[in-house]
C-alpha cells in the first residue's frame, strides 16, 4: 500500500514481501554448499552513495533533473573543459554536516577536497573531486532494530567515514557490449549527472548476513529522507549501495579477501546478492580454491540472480590522489555546526525509542517509524475520540475489546491521507451505526423478501446484503454489513 509513496520508507522485509518476482533462490545456483556454509562466517561492509537533492550541482550552477534529455544540463565546469573553475555549493557542506551529525560522527573542522584520478568515458575531467585523507565526518554509528520475523534484535553498525564528492556522467550503450565500446556498438555519454553532489558513507565491516546489510541500507535511506537531503530512491540511483563481502573460516580472526558488488537497486537485491556471493565464496573455499577469490568488483545480475566479474579493483595508489588546487579548504565554525545540530529533525532511531516507550510492540514501532511522518497524531486522535469512541459506546465495549490494533489504525489514516481511500469510506469501515440504518431501511422496504427469509429461505440474505451495498454506493464494509444484517435477521425471526 505504501511502497509507491516517495515519502515513505520500508524495511527490507516489507519490500521483499511486495516483490514476489524475487523468489528465485540464488542458492540453487550453488548447490551442495549447505553442508559447508556453517563452517564460515561472512564479513560485510557497505559503501553508500547518496545523491543530494540540492537545487544545483556541487561546483557549478547547473540544475539536475532525473530523466531530463541527455546533455541538456551541462556547462564548462561539469563538462571538465580546460580552464573552467569549480565553485563549491554551500548546501553540500550543510547536508554533509547534517548527515555526519545524524550518523553520530566526529566532524572535521578543517577538511579539504582531493582529486581521485582514473580514466573512464563518463568522467570528462579524468579525475573525480572527492575527499581522501580528511573526510568531513568519521567514526560514527547507526542503530537499528531488525524486524521481528528475523528474530528481532538491536544492532549498532559502525560508520567509518562520510565524505563529499561529485557524481560522474552516465554511459548509454547500444548493442551487445556491456562495459566497453567495441567497434560494432555505440557508446554515448550523458553528462547531466556529472558534478551532481554525493555523500559517500563507508560502513565498518560490521554486518554478518544479507538481512543485516539490507536493514542497514534501509536505515540509511530513512535517515537521509528524514533529514530531507536526498530522495533516497534506489531505482533512480539516488541511493547506491556497493556491498563488500568476504568469508573466513569460523575461529579465524583475520579477514578474507573482499569482493565488491555493484548494481544493487533494491534492498532485496542487496540481500540476495550477498547470499549468492557468500555461497560462491564458500564453495570455492571448501573446494580448496580459496586463492581464486580475488579483490575485484563484481556486478549483480538481477535476471540471472548471480554476481559476475566486472573489473579488477584498482589499488589505492593507482588513483594518485592529491589535494584539489582549485578549491579552498573547508572550515567549519562551531556556531555553524551548533545551528545545524539544533535544526535536526527527530530521526528514525529517536522515533523508534519514543514509540517503544509508549508501550507499542516492536512490530508497530518499526511500522510507524518507517514513515517519515509516522502516524498523523491529530488525525489519529480525531478517529479515536470520534468514530472509535462512538462505536465503543454503541457496542458497549472498551478499547481493549475492539479488534483495531495501532498498526491498522495507522494504515487506515495513511491511506486516507495519501488519498488511496476517501475519508468517507474510511469512516464507514468503522462506523456500524450508518450501516445499521441502511440495513433497517432495506429490511423495512422489502417485507415480502423478509417473509420468505422467515419461512426458511435463508439464501435471501445475500439479496439484502446486495441492497444495502447498493444503498451505500459500495462503501459499506462487507464484513460489518453481514454481521449487522445477520444480527437484525436473527432478531426479527
Ligand atoms: N575483508 C573485508 N570483508 C568485507 N568487507 C570489508 C573488508 N575489508 C573492508 N571491508 C569494507 O569494504 C568497504 C571499503 O570501502 P572503501 O570506500 O574504504 O574502499 P574501496 O571500496 O576500496 O574504495 P572505492 O571507494 O574506490 O570503491 C568498507 O565498507 C569496509 O568496511
Ligand atoms: Mg568501493
Ligand atoms: Mg568507497
TrEMBL record:
The keyword Nucleotide-binding applies. Residues 366-489 form the Asn/Gln amidotransferase domain. The keyword ATP-binding applies. The lineage of its organism: Eukaryota, Viridiplantae, Streptophyta, Embryophyta, Tracheophyta. This is Glutamyl-tRNA(Gln) amidotransferase subunit B, chloroplastic/mitochondrial. Its EC number is 6.3.5.-. It comes from Populus deltoides. SMART domains: GatB_Yqey. It is found in: Mitochondrion; Plastid, Chloroplast.
Amino acid at each position: 500500500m505504501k511502497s509507491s509513496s516517495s515519502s515513505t520508507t520500508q524495511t527490507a522485509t516489507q519490500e521483499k514481501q511486495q516483490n514476489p518476482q524475487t523468489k528465485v533462490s540464488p542458492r540453487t545456483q550453488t548447490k551442495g554448499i549447505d553442508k559447508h556454509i556453517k563452517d564460515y562466517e561472512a564479513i560485510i561492509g557497505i559503501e553508500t552513495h547518496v545523491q543530494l537533492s540540492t537545487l544545483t550541482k556541487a561546483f557549478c550552477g547547473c540544475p539536475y533533473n532525473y530523466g531530463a534529455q541527455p546533455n541538456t544540463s551541462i556547462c564548462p565546469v561539469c563538462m571538465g573543459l580546460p580552464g573552467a573553475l569549480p565553485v563549491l555549493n554551500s548546501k553540500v557542506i550543510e547536508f554533509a554536516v547534517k548527515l555526519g551529525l545524524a550518523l553520530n560522527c566526529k566532524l572535521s573542522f578543517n577538511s579539504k577536497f582531493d582529486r581521485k584520478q582514473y580514466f573512464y568515458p563518463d568522467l570528462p575531467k579524468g579525475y573525480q573531486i572527492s575527499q581522501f585523507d580528511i573526510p568531513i565526518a568519521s567514526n560514527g554509528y547507526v542503530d537499528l532494530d531488525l524486524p521481528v520475523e528475523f528474530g528481532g534484535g538491536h544492532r549498532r553498525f559502525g560508520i567509518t567515514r562520510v565524505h563529499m564528492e561529485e557524481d560522474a556522467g552516465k554511459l548509454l550503450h547500444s548493442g551487445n557490449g556491456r562495459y566497453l565500446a567495441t567497434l560494432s556498438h555505440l557508446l554515448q555519454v550523458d553528462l547531466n549527472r556529472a558534478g551532481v553532489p554525493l555523500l559517500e558513507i563507508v560502513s565498518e565491516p560490521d554486518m554478518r548476513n544479507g538481512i543485516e546489510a539490507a536493514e542497514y541500507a534501509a536505515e540509511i535511506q530513512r535517515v537521509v529522507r528524514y533529514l530531507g537531503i536526498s530522495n533516497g530512491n534506489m531505482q533512480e540511483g539516488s541511493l547506491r549501495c556497493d556491498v563488500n563481502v568476504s568469508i573466513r573460516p569460523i575461529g579465524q580472526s583475520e579477514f578474507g579477501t573482499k569482493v565488491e558488488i555493484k548494481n544493487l537497486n533494491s534492498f532485496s537485491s542487496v540481500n540476495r546478492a550477498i547470499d549468492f556471493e557468500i555461497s560462491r565464496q564458500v564453495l570455492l573455499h571448501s573446494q580448496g580454491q580459496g586463492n581464486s577469490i580475488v579483490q575485484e568488483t563484481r556486478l549483480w545480475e538481477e535476471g540471472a540472480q548471480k554476481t559476475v566479474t566486472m573489473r579488477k579493483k584498482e589499488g589505492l595508489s593507482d588513483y594518485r590522489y592529491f589535494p584539489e588546487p582549485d578549491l579552498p579548504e573547508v572550515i567549519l565554525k562551531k556556531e555553524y555546526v551548533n545551528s545545524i545540530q539544533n535544526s535536526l529533525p527527530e530521526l528514525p532511531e529517536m522515533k523508534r525509542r519514543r514509540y517503544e516507550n509508549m508501550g507499542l510492540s516492536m512490530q508497530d514501532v518499526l511500522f510507524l517509524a518507517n514513515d517519515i511522518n509516522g502516524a498523523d497524531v491529530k488525525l489519529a486522535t480525531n478517529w479515536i475520540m470520534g468514530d472509535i469512541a462512538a462505536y465503543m459506546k454503541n457496542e458497549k465495549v472498551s478499547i481493549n475489546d475492539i479488534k483495531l490494533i495501532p498498526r491498522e489504525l495507522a494504515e487506515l489514516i495513511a491511506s486516507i491521507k495519501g488519498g488511496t481511500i476517501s475519508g468517507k469510506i474510511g469512516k464507514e469501515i468503522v462506523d456500524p451505526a450508518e450501516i445499521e440504518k441502511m440495513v433497517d431501511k432495506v429490511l423495512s422496504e422489502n417485507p415480502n423478501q423478509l417473509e420468505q427469509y422467515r419461512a426458511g429461505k435463508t439464501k435471501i440474505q445475500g439479496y439484502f446484503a446486495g441492497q444495502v451495498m447498493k444503498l451505500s454506493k459500495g462503501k459499506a464494509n462487507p464484513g460489518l454489513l453481514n454481521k449487522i444484517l445477520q444480527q437484525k435477521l436473527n432478531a426479527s425471526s
